[in-house]
Amino acid sequence: MKFIIKDNYEEMSREAADMMAQLLKENPKLVAALPTGGTPERPLELFAQKHQEENLDFSKMKSFNIDEYIPLAKDNPQGYYYFLNKYLYSRVNINYDNTFVPDITKDIDTACAEFEQKIEDAGNLDFILLGIGNDGHIGFNEPAPYYYEKTHLVELDPDTIEANSRFFDHIDDVPTQAITLGMATILKAKKIALIANGEKKANGIRKLYEENTIYPEFPASFLRLHRDVTIIVDREAAKYIL
């Protein structure tokens, strides 16, 4: 597990964007899974800018949502597909047929199975960019006594709902369910990067840095099972490991 500490959020974002751009240059058919939320906004913007500034070609790239709220449709401004479209897809030359999100118009079990099959049909993930929740969750794999292997339905933890309420008018508007990639699907990616900024993420980054155990109360600890993980943080998130 490699740690990269940058001075601030902008530099952290640029590091992540540069990594993604290099991977896409090396493999124009990159199969990626991308995150949503506050931290990924600037990295995705900077990644998209490389299409205009460096003529970076997204036309053969495939992009999968890591997760999606239920019951928010693709055109809902609070949805996660909408987020990726806003910060990335609409700004580059990606083929929309190569952008994937679980189809929540279907039975949930069917939607999960079909989404997982699309990832397998694409040859599994070359790269996944993760955020981390204040409680250590990755995707929407929350602290729990057990984990699902593949894409599945989750009941969101109250702490996650509260943390995400900043994106909604009222906490009661935050969905209580989501579909997320399973832990095994995440770990099958060839390369993993995790980004974190701000003091609220500092304790989780300390645990990743200092501890060597794997336990379900801290979902991000499962990243220790992977051979190629890069953690990119700003100084506030790294305050306990500097």
Automatic annotation (TrEMBL):
EC class of the enzyme, as a word: hydrolase
Highest taxon in the source lineage: Bacteria
GO BP of this protein: carbohydrate metabolic process; glucosamine catabolic process; N-acetylglucosamine catabolic process; N-acetylneuraminate catabolic process
GO CC annotations, alphabetized: cytoplasm
EC numbers for this chain: 3.5.99.6
Pfam families noted in UniProt: Glucosamine_iso
Domain Glucosamine/galactosamine-6-phosphate isomerase: 10-226
Gene3D superfamilies registered for this protein in UniProt: 3.40.50.1360
Keyword list, A-Z: Carbohydrate metabolism, Hydrolase
One of the record's GO molecular function terms: glucosamine-6-phosphate deaminase activity
PANTHER family tied to this protein: GLUCOSAMINE-6-PHOSPHATE ISOMERASE
Protein's recorded name: Glucosamine-6-phosphate deaminase
